[in-house]
Structures are given as structure tokens and as C-alpha cells.
Design a protein that fits this description.
mainly beta, N-terminal domain of TfIIb, SH3 type barrels, three-stranded antiparallel beta sheet, 1 helix, YjdM_N, Protein YjdM, YjdM, YjdM_C
Amino acid sequence: MKALPNCPKCNSEYTYEDGSLLVCPECAHEWSLIADAEQAEEEKVVKDANGSILKDGDAVTVIKDLKVKGSSSTLKIGTKVKSIRLVEGDHDIDCKIDGFGPMKLKSEFVKKA
């Protein structure tokens, strides 16, 4: 038996499934887990070091010298990166940098160009 989440309205642990909905018998609140999961995905926002919201296709600039793992070279401050792609994980920017190739960056080390 899978554990169902508590009611988001009254925090009751006595929730049950009714078709595709979850129902709380104490407050009669009904909600859908699928809608909650989609809403959580939509709410994920990636921000740069200055707090600007980043989107796929944006151009960013590196704000700090970054050591590149597996290489003796360094990614210099001011390097401009075009056409970023946002991904899940710790390194949330996927991009290609001229002279370095494909790389993943953390959004905290870039600013929107």
C-alpha cells in the first residue's frame, strides 16, 4: 500500500483516493496529485547571480573565474555564453562554450547578458 500525502488544507492524515482525485474526509477538500506535480514543475524558476530569471535560449556572462574539471584551463570572468538550456540538477545550465565545448554551469556564477 502506498502512503498518501496529508491534506494540504487541514493536514489530516486520513486522505483516500477517489478515482484520479485525493479526498480528505475531515474537511472535504479534493485535489489531484498530477496537477500538483505539474504545478511544481512550472514553478521551478532558475535565477542568475543578480536575481534575474533565466530562460532557455538566453545569453549569460560568467562572473567569476571557474576551474574546469578534468582540464588545466580556466573559464575566465566575462566569458559570454549564448543559447543556454536549463536542466534539472545542481548544475542547472547546459551550454556550449567556444574553445571549451559542451559544459554545465551553476546559475549562481553567471549573470544575464
